Amino acid sequence: MIRFNKARLVGVRLVVLSFVLAAFTGLSAQNDTTFVANGTPIIKYKYVGDPAAMVHDGKVYIYGGHDECPPPNEHYLINEWCVFSSPDLKTWTEHPVPLKAKDFSWAKGGSMGKSGH
Fold first, then answer.
1. Which element (helix H / strand E) includes 34?
2. Tell me: the pLDDT tens digits for 27-51?
3. Suppose 94 and one of 33, 46, 80, 106 were both cysteines; which one would form an S-S bond, judging by CB atoms 3.0 to 4.6 Å apart?
């Protein structure tokens, strides 16, 4: 029998909803960046871990944490999440950052934990 932690499930749903809403409202002043993917990985200019894909109105959206390891850290930190979209899986657009770790009052040090990548 699988047991679910209801509070955690609600939290996950709120994070996903935040991603979706932020992607469509453009909460940042950052401009969209378009690029053509040649092979894998699709995103080669930054590390985007744990991607999740969604399809909406004929476009694929990829959401993922932007893992960074600034010196002197020994672990990757997720300070923001990224969103990319494509109508054809070849031409991709990076949209403004929809969500940052500092948006969560309970996040320590402005990042979302340590990642051992």
1. strand 33-36
2. 445 689 999 999 999 999 998 988 9
3. 33
